[in-house]
Amino acid sequence: MNSEKPSSKSAGAGLLVAVTASLCCITPVLALISGTSGIAAIFSWLEPFRPYLIGLTVMVLLFAWYQKLKQKKTEIDCECEDDERVPFMQSKFFLGLVTIFAAVMLAFPYYSDIFYPDINKESVFVNESSILEINLAIEGMTCTGCEEHINYEVNKLTGVMEIKSSFQDGQALIKYDASKTSIEDIVNTINDTGYTVKEEFKYSGGNKSTAN
């Protein structure tokens, strides 16, 4: 029926908005899979709009369900065709699938870290006097996926012993062997992902310095 079409259009719109709301967190994973690390932060500018996009997704899908259930009631009242004769993309089953997929997309930031493999490093002898820690202020992180992407790329550097990133604080604490890697290598690796190191603090006897 033509009157069924608005609900399918609303479902499509809801799905599109849900994907858009999650782009800032989906992109780092896509960057990992495709091997194009530099695009990881390309949609980080969407993060401030995420709450509004989530709200819009919910409203659009609720409206789609309202249309669908209202249409079903009308069919029952007038003994019209049942759902079995409705095209798949205009059915309640399809709308249900769209709703579930939209929910999965909106929740993506909370489980995106599962896509990042652990980097197992061999245990090697290190000179304790060469071990340093730095706390980097990083711009562009919006979720745990961003944290994991930075951790993954920096961990690949020889000499990096530990890294803990926090998108909430906008910082990364890195422990490394200064005889095997340098602050410059770490900063360049992070910047190459598309995120930006704004400020650098060097600890363990080092002097405070700034990297832009």
Tally of individual helices: 5
Radius of gyration: 24 Å
Number of strands: 4
Number of domain units: 2
Q: What structural category arises from helix and sheet content?
A: alpha+beta
Mean residue pLDDT: 80
The strands making up the biggest β-sheet line up spatially as 2-3-1-4
Unreliable spans are 205-212
Could you spell the SSE succession in H and E letters? HHHEHEEHE
Q: What does the main sheet amount to?
A: 4 strands, antiparallel
- Cα(first) to Cα(last) distance is 60 Å
Strand content: 5-15%
Described by the principal axes of the CA atoms, the overall outline is: elongated
The portion of residues assigned to helices is 40-55%
Can you characterise this structure?
This protein is of the alpha+beta class and 212 residues long. It starts with a helix and ends in a 10-residue tail after the last strand. The protein has five helices and four strands. It folds into two domains: 2-110; 115-202, 2-Layer Sandwich (Alpha-Beta Plaits). The longest helix has 30 residues, at 5-34. The protein has a four-stranded antiparallel sheet. Helices cover 45% and strands 14% of the residues. It has helices at residues 5-34, 50-78, 92-106, 144-155, 183-192; strands spanning 131-139, 160-166, 171-177, 196-202.
